[in-house]
Amino acid sequence: MNILIDIAHPAQVHLFKNLAWILKKKGHEIIFTPRDKEYCLYLLEKYGFDYIPLGKVPSGFLMKAVSLPFFVKKISKISKKFKPDILLSDGSVSLAFVSKIIHKPHIAMEDTGNPEQIFLYKPFTEVILSPQCLKLNLGKKHIKYAGYYELAYLHPKYFQPERNILKTLGIMEGEKFAVVRFSAKTATHDFGYKGIPDAYKKKCANEFQKYARLVILSEVELNSPLRQFQIQIPPEKIHDLMYYASLVYTDGAKTACEAAVLGTPSIYVDFRGRDYTRDQEEKYGAIFNFKNSAAEYENSIIKGIELLKKEDAKTQWSGKREKIIRENIDLTAFMSWFIENYPQSLKVAAADDSYQFNFK
User: How many other CB atoms are found less than 10 A from the CB of residue 52?
Assistant: First the structure.
């Protein structure tokens, strides 16, 4: 079977990488069609995948809409040569349109719930797979599973942290350190939100460094007082760093959820939040969600200080991680079964909601 996977963001490489390795070992052919965005190409190259880059993604909602026909045309051309049996993506509008053109099924993963994007890809998509925590009901095409995207690559079956990242950064064994990560906020679902204001970024840094070493990862340019804390590490090492951190403070939903799944206390600051970050707070107490107001920024920093001062926080969060893994499925194993057995798998999953728990 030939499977084409469309990639618009580096997080999607992580989402699909273990699935791709498993399917390749079983004799299936996999090709990725990535955008030249951030480190998508770097990760695909690092992991040894076959890919055909589609070019850069323009900034701005309007320019992204204008570029859509270009990406559809390019993927269609690739598809005529590769002849995919299944198209797979994280809610790619481009791939959904291509599926209509080449008459092949499109399987979409979905966890953000961006209504504009879903409106565009749903009519041309055979099935939408999402976490149970997603509040939307997308009809007969919608299959919900117990879990989170992040379990597809941070489940202990697939991820084992490497301590050498600490040595590289000069962090001593047992030393407390906080990872602060600021996102670029260029996705369509971030439209109109610029992230945490500079004044609160500075206050966050000033306060956290009193209780732990501070490490900043940033997709946006920082003011000079913060640059002393900024580091550059290989993208594939970020999860190792977050695993050993005492705290992760971020305005990126994926980063917050990754930290929680890794067993690290996590604070997420955003204008609207996500269903999956709220679920991890309500169900497991693994993430603390805050909105974008002066009072909420202040409270998020207070919560960060509280967690850094808590001596047994990492032990507690290790237990939360174990509970998350115990109560949810191995998403990679589920996706592998679903794709290899499609379309029969759709009938099985739709008829028996408990069948997914065969993949633990």
Answer: 15
Q: Comparing C-alpha atoms, which of 271, 277, 273, 234 is closest to residue 258? A: 277
Given a contact cutoff of 8 angstroms between Cβ atoms, the answer to whether 131 and 147 are in contact is yes
- Distance between CA atoms of residues 21 and 199, nearest Å: 44
Alpha carbons 356 and 222: distance in angstroms, whole number: 44
d(CA 162, CA 153) in angstroms, rounded, equals 15
Whole-number average pLDDT of the chain: 94
- What's the pLDDT tens digit per position in 42-62? 999 999 999 999 998 776 667
Radius of gyration for the alpha carbons in the chain, expressed in angstroms and rounded: 20
CB–CB of 9/34 below 8 Å? no
Fold annotation for 164-325: Rossmann fold (3.40.50)
Cα within 13 Å of Cα(184), Cβ side: 10
Is there a common fold for 2-147+329-358 and 164-325?
yes
Fold of 2-147+329-358: Rossmann fold (3.40.50)
**Contact (CB, 8 A) for 357 and 144:** no
pTM above 0.85, yes or no: yes
